[in-house]
Amino acid sequence: MSINERDVGKKDASFEREPARRVFAAELRECRYQFKEGDDEKSPTFVLLPTGERSNRIYLVGTLTEKQRQGEQNLFYRGRVVDPTGTFFVMAGSYQPEAMQQIAKIETPAFVAVVGKPNIYQKDPASSPLVSVRIESINVVDKETRDLWMLDAAARTLDRIDAFARGEGKDVVTAKEQYPTLNPAVFKKMAYDALAQIKI
Amino acid sequence: MDYSENAERISRKFSQKGQTVDKKKIENKLRRLVDEFGVLPSEAERSVTNDLAKEFNIPTLGTSSGSGPGSATEQKKIADAAPGDWVTIEGKVVSLSTPASPTIAQSGILADESGAIRFIVWTKSNAPAMTEGSWYRIESAVVDEYKGIPSLKVHSGTTMKELGTTDPLIPVPVQIKDLHIGIGSVRAKVVQEWEPTHDRMLQSGLLSDETGTIRFVIWKEPGKEQLEVGSVYSAFYALVDEYNGRLSLNLTTATVMQEEGDIPTISGGEVAIHGAIVHIAPGSGIIKRCPVEGCNRALSRQNYCPIHEIQPNFVYDLRIKGWLDDGEKTHNILIQRGVVESLTSITLDAAKEIAENNPLGMDEVFLRMRDILLGRYVVCRGREIENRLMVNSCERLTFDSGEHAALLNRAGGAS
């Protein structure tokens, strides 16, 4: 099959996009450490997963159970996307007009695939931090896509746990420092429980 | 002022070469240059010497007219000739090409064992025509560059003589990753053929060896043949230039020979990437292309082609540009019409229908395709070129209960 050379483009192809990590809600919920590499205003911000991997972006599939329109001047949407291990808190603001339009027309409950950026919020110093996901895109999908994501998320989680146990990866040391009380083995059980919920 | 001393010096130079010159005439020439034209005496002496040298055809006496560093004519190997140099080179004409302009008498490629360089013989130089396959000594030629490619210019001050040697010069192919702007020889496989983007283009596509890939182009010229996809070729003395910011191999004037057998290429052929489509980029869906033969550029909403301007008789096409993410790396993907049709179940005709009858027009096609594909797991097969996956086939992934069972075992194992 022949390729149209005009579509090959030039500069945009050299851009490295941050990969979207696969992580269950129960693991993302435990994130407390957020960092930036480089001093540039545009350098990406990462959330450190307890299993020892940085994440600038995540991809998740679950059930959108609730969505809420908030704000008057600065309209934004908040939603809850549930997987077998817990809940992802997702939001789309006026800086994500496409994501807002997408979430606006989804009727709950529905299986949704979400691509977005995780962030750690703290309402005030006294309250406990909350991890939320700023939506880049949200789309209604079928159950099979949800099941495929569960396999994918479980496999990636187990890969991270193995790498953590071997002490591999540049973020494992930081994870041990930042999350001294967390034993990644608990996420293995979590993955098992999630997988066990898939009905064939 | 007395010029007898300078004249004497000049005449001595020529008598050494067996030529007799009129000292009085030289003196007069010098006087004229200095007194009438205000030329410095040293410059005048050189100028007169050069004139006479040309008259008697004694190249070594003429001094180069350039000034400053690098102006001296040095005998050099081709690989050492840098733009700005005045050089004397001995090399073999390995290729001749059709001159692009009447001001050029001959153009082609000159090679020695160190490398090869493009050369141009100006018509004004009145140089004798060179023949392909012969060795020449070219004295006082200038090296300059055009679009970053060094080129040897034979001008009226250059002398050239054919050498009797018949050294069989054997070019050494380099690996694709080691090619640089100029002239290069490679041994590579044609892994892809692209639609020509110009009516003078005979063929363009992609060559690959185990170190990399490079675009190639062959322009239409009598006797030129297309290369076969999947075959291995040795291309000697191809022009390496830059196109769209990447290196490109122009094989029009190269010696291209088909080779037996196969060689490993960088990706070993196709790659298969399993992942989720995490973004569908603008410019996906149904698009309009410029109808001018060989152009095929995507038009703007106003049917505007950056080259051919307004094109009301555009041609519709389908494509998907986006990102496929496997959790470790995000791959830029480009999906062509046939694959888009089978993946989305929206044919080009159906998409046209939507675009022409729906209030949202072409956007409606984009939105429908986005809703079908975004967030879905697929496997895309194709070739990765410059960080972009050119997708040849793409299918939705399906749930694999065997994988499910294996993961349950893995997660349930000893912790």
Structural descriptors:
heterodimer; A: 200 residues; alpha+beta; OB fold (Dihydrolipoamide Acetyltransferase, E2P); five-stranded mixed β-barrel; three-stranded antiparallel beta sheet; 9 strands; 32% strand; globular; B: 415 residues; 4 domains; five-stranded mixed barrel; five-stranded mixed beta barrel; 7 helices
Structural commentary:
The complex is a heterodimer of chains A (200) and B (415). Chain A is built from five helices and nine strands. Chain A is of the alpha+beta class and 200 residues long. Chain A has a single domain (17-196), classed as Nucleic acid-binding proteins (OB fold (Dihydrolipoamide Acetyltransferase, E2P)), CATH 2.40.50.140. In chain A, the strands form two sheets. Chain A has a five-stranded mixed β-barrel. A three-stranded antiparallel sheet of chain A has the order 2-3-4. In chain A, α3 runs antiparallel to α5 (185-196). The radius of gyration of chain A is 18 Å and the shape is globular. The relative contact order of chain A is 0.19. Mean pLDDT of chain A is 89; it is low at 9-13. By secondary structure, chain B is an alpha+beta fold. Chain B has four domains: 4-61; 74-163, OB fold (Dihydrolipoamide Acetyltransferase, E2P); 176-259, Nucleic acid-binding proteins (OB fold (Dihydrolipoamide Acetyltransferase, E2P)); 271-396, OB fold (Dihydrolipoamide Acetyltransferase, E2P) (Beta Barrel). Chain B contains seven helices and 21 strands. Chain B has helices at 4-16, 23-36, 41-56, 337-344, 348-357, 362-373, 401-412; strands at 74-75, 86-97, 104-112, 115-122, 135-146, 149-154, 159-163, 182-194, 201-209, 212-219, 232-243, 246-250, 255-259, 271-280, 285-289, 304-305, 309-310, 315-325, 330-335, 377-385, 388-396. In chain B, the strands form four sheets. A five-stranded mixed beta barrel of chain B has the order 2-3-4-6-5. The longest helix of chain B is centred in the N-terminal third of the chain and has 16 residues, at 41-56. The relative contact order of chain B is 0.07. Residues 64-71 of chain B have low confidence and may be disordered. At the A-B interface, β1, β5, β8, β9 and α3 of A face β8, β14, β18, β19 and β21 of B.
